[in-house]
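in:
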């Protein structure tokens, strides 16, 4: 019996040592870096600056970029991400103005395209999991975002504002080392879906463009950016989200379930919920 207990004690000690070593490695390694291996056809990418493309890019940015990157002065200089759970650490969004030193003024069109797809900076730094990546976005829409970033939008005018380095907590470091990695570049051109087919285009907007499932699924750590429908609890909600009162609340079920989802909503109710934050039951939707 004593021999058995001694063996179990040794095994437990080894297990604790391995876990401690792994945790220490993750902590001191921090967010991993990756080689910015940009293919030749992307290195030479030149996105046209036509007005229609810039206008489309501005609309996409209003949906996906501005909320996190807008500073107190309305410029896209970045900000402290106080609306993320405190468990994530002290985090700041990136300056995406055209400043050559502190923003993206020196980046080429190809580098911007590569970064938006993979999250890998020109120097190999990788944007943490909370920064969206867009592996499924149509090339046309991604070009539109790049064209807008190059535009004369006043919010993008060069600004040298910078913030302290990010200090991600262990949770983010763990996710970045264990649960997430840069998505691969598409191996063929990403075509825009048929915009006249409401179901096909709606799926594209929800899954590829806006990634609504990222919040409205069950677990941030168990999502599949390349095959969103494989994400745990796909559109069933449950992810803990921080509301305006700094309380954690579960994201909503937006499946067609009539009891817990939106199966009983009319088109008009859905439209008003998405467009105006109007709850069909009265009042505003939770945030």
């Amino acid at each position: 019996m004593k021999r058995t207990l001694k063996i179990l004690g040794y095994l437990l000690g080894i297990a604790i040592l391995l876990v401690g070593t792994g945790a220490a490695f993750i902590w001191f390694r921090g967010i991993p870096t990756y080689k910015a291996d940009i293919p030749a056809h992307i290195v030479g990418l030149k996105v046209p600056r036509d007005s229609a493309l810039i206008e489309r890019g501005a609309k996409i940015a209003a949906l996906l970029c501005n909320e996190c990157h807008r500073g107190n002065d309305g410029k896209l200089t970045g900000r402290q991400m106080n609306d993320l759970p405190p468990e994530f650490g002290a985090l700041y969004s990136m300056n995406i103005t055209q400043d050559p030193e502190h923003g993206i003024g020196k980046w080429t069109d190809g580098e911007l395209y590569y970064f938006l797809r993979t999250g890998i900076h020109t120097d190999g730094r990788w944007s943490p999991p909370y920064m969206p990546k867009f592996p499924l976005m149509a090339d046309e829409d991604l070009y539109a975002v790049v064209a807008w970033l190059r535009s004369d939008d006043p919010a993008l005018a060069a600004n040298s504002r910078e913030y302290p380095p990010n200090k991600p907590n262990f949770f983010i470091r763990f996710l970045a080392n264990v649960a997430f990695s840069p998505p691969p570049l598409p191996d063929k051109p990403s075509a825009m879906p048929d915009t006249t087919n409401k179901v096909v285009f709606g799926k594209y907007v929800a899954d590829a463009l806006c990634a609504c499932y990222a919040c409205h699924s069950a677990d941030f750590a168990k999502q599949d950016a390349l095959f969103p429908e494989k994400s745990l609890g796909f559109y069933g909600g449950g992810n803990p989200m921080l509301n305006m009162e700094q309380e954690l609340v579960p994201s909503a079920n937006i499946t067609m379930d009539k009891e817990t989802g939106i199966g009983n909503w009319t088109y008009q109710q859905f439209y008003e919920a998405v467009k105006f934050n109007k709850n069909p039951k009265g009042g505003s939707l939770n945030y």
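note: Strands lie at 89-90, 167-168, 240-242, 248-250.
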